[in-house]
Amino acid sequence: MSGQLAITVLGATGSIGLSTLDVVSRNSDRYRVFALTANRDVDRLFEQCLTYRPRFAVLADVDAAHDLRHRLHDKAPDIEVLGGPEALISIAGMDEVDCVMAGIVGAAGLMPTLEAVRTGKRVLLANKEALVMSGALFMQQVQVGGAVLLPVDSEHNAIFQCMPHTYVPGSGQPDGVEKILLTASGGPFRTMMPDQLCGVTPAQACAHPNWDMGRKISVDSATMMNKGLEVIEAYWLFSLPESRLQVMIHPQSIVHSMVQYRDGSVLAQMGNPDMRTPIAHSLAWPERIDAGVDALDMLKVGRLDFDAPDTQRFPCLRLAREVLCAGGTAPAVLNAANEIAVQAFLDEHIAFTTIPEVIESTLEKVSLHAADSIEVILEDDTQARACASGIIASLQGRRMYS
pLDDT of 77-95, one tens digit each? Predict the structure, then answer.
């Protein structure tokens, strides 16, 4: 036991959490689960507790925590159950923790992830919103806390793998790198005519052609907001200006991203579309471990296609680039408005094409500030959510599907 690394999985019941636990179980001689967290999925977390026997189980929802505590009382009384947002933060920074998988989706993951970097953990970053909302402050805390920040998003992990072998994310601009080439599948509506997008349903938007993801991230992929957020994340991780971060549509999702060097060479990281690969890479870096993923068969792949993104069909990508250039709290406002708009679409309150409209209107209405404290960032996040909700309420008379 003493040679094992203690892992805390933030967002254990989501797709990233499930994949992380699968990799951990394949390498149980190296890792042990210290804590598992979830929002309110008591059933799944209960089963995970019985399987992995963590020291702590944490639910953001206090009532759900009470339910889990009651259910574990007889079967696993040694597992301590905590509840509430503050418990999520404290569990991420506990002294016994070696490594934190930051897999909570959205702004809810910001504070626990910040605590993990502040206390010097190895942080496997799957929560891109933490960097989107608080990029400069977040990276400052990485340096002050002495954390090791490793990207888990398949694209950013691919970029990291293609960087010079001595490079670590957050350590400045990498030597000899000219450009980062972020690939995007294009989602389920890549070839759909723009005038058809108004009528797409949540089920269609969540049916990603290559990846098995949660509903929110699936919609972000369909709008290409996910790629816009990844551009912002790449800016902070790799210290290249926005003009040197290029997005390319690659429908096969085999090339996960590329790095172009000054000498004209381009390095690409390829593999089957399975999140266990970047998770295993980040867990074991600089070593390699079994991820349970089949090796890529290039003869079966046959061909690789690349194209430029259509920002008229996918205005969210344009909006993300604009807020990156604007700086301050603009990215936090964009992220907050997007979370509200995506949920409204999933709840069938607005049309798919209304998502970018809500975001752009929110950016126009909310006053932006310098992102010089977490309090300012969270205040503008709150203002943006209220503004976006008000815009959606004003649109309730609009017919959702045509």
Answer: 999 999 999 999 999 999 9
Residue 145: φ, ψ to 5°: -80, -15
Radius of gyration of the chain (CA): 21
238 with 162: CB under 8 angstroms?
no
User: Do residues 79 and 53 lie in contact, with contact meaning Cβ atoms separated by under 8 Å?
Assistant: yes
Task: Identify whether the C-beta of residue 16 lies closer than 8 Å to the C-beta of residue 152.
Answer: yes
Alpha carbon separation from 263 to 160, 174, 179, 267 (Å, rounded): 19, 14, 11, 12
Residue with tokens 């977390």: 45
Alpha-carbon distance values, 336 to 212, 236, 333, 378 (Å): 24, 19, 5, 10
Beta-carbon-side half-sphere exposure of residue 156 (alpha carbons within 13 Å): 30
Q: For the CA atoms of 379, 232, 159, 139, what is the dihedral angle to 10 degrees?
A: -40
- Amino acid identity, position 382: T
User: pLDDT of 176-226, one tens digit each?
Assistant: 999 999 999 988 888 888 888 989 999 999 987 776 678 898 999 999 999
Neighbours of 276 (CB within 10 A): 21
- Helix (H) / strand (E) element for 389: namely helix 374-394
